[in-house]
Amino acid sequence: MSKSLCICVSNKEIPSESRGVPMPHIPSNLRHIESLVEIVASLRGPGGCPWDKEQTHESLTQYAIEETHELVEALELPASDASKDLKMKEELGDVLFQVVLHAQLAAERGAFTLEDVIAGISEKLVRRHPHVFSDTQVADTAEVIRNWEEIKKQEKATSAAPSPYALNVPPLPALQKAYKIGKRTEKLKFDWEDMDGVLANVEEEYQELREALDEGNDSEIEHELGDALFSLAQLGRHVQMEPEQVLRKANQRFENRFNMMVELVEKDQKDFSAMTLEQKEEYWKKAKLLLKKK
Predict the structure, then answer these.
(1) Domain-embedded: residue 167
(2) How far apart are CA 124 and CA 144, in angstroms?
(3) Burial zone of 277 (CB within 10 Å; 0-12 exposed, 13-18 middle, 19+ buried)
(4) What whole-number distance in Å separates Cα of residue 216 and Cα of residue 231?
(5) Rounded distance, CA 156 to CA 27, Å?
């Protein structure tokens, strides 16, 4: 659910009319993109929502990340899940709200509008698909990708060209970016020669983290923990496993086991908060075994 809807409802705002401000107009057809733009503008307007009116591009960053990850979670639901389409629709709506809200903030300061955003992506798609919108011929998907990359290079040729050896990795979630950095350095022939080299680096970083933990220096712990996570991302790359996806699956396994553990505790009519760690561990093992049988 979008943050603004939660905030406005939970704060039980005083109706705009009672504050001497006209109540915002509700569009008659909510299926049109223009209606969403109007609603978002109203949220930011005189009779709108205090939370929405306080937001900036920077303050909304965390919600862009959260909503995108919730969409990915819905996309990865098994096709057999009866709720998949409904969840996908809801999460796509939340992501779209973020796009429209950012466009509204930009429009308020005269930078650009949602129409400009739509025009920009439309022009880019047409430009990068000459095999669809012009007479360019392609043999297969691999050639489509090569053409796409070449067109991207031509688009960037007008600006100061970075070094051909620069990483230029796009902004991504940290673990995914670590993987992409490794893919780029691999192409530049700056990589471990074999799996043994990667594993040795993982072990080295782990040992350095242990030493930092023993010393109790927070800045050093942060540094070494980051290095350890980065080296594990490179290990994932060397075994052809994208670490972001691997960790998402691990997160889901932990969630499933934890929820099963709580369910078992409640089934035995025990107070989870009063249990010892050892007692919880026993239920954790039971949950793990039950889930393995499914």
Answers:
(1) no
(2) 15
(3) exposed
(4) 22
(5) 41
Q: How many CB atoms lie within 10 A of CB 54?
A: 10
Q: How many domains does the chain have?
A: 4
Rg (CA), the chain: 25
CATH code for the domain in which residue 97 is found: 1.10.287.1080
The reported pLDDT for the residue numbered 7 is 45
Residue numbers of the domain that contains 184:
174-241
Would you say 211 and 279 are in contact if contact means Cβ atoms under 8 Å apart? Answer: no
Residue of 245, 206, 198 whose CA lies nearest to 226: 206
Q: Which of 62, 87, 112 is the last residue of a domain?
A: 112
The first and second tokens of residue 93, run together, are 């709506």
The first and second tokens of residue 82, run together, are 């009866």
- Predicted local confidence at residue 3, as pLDDT: 57
CA distance 9 to 188: 53
pLDDT one-digit tens code per residue, 217-233: 999 999 999 999 999 99
Q: pTM (2 decimals)? A: 0.62
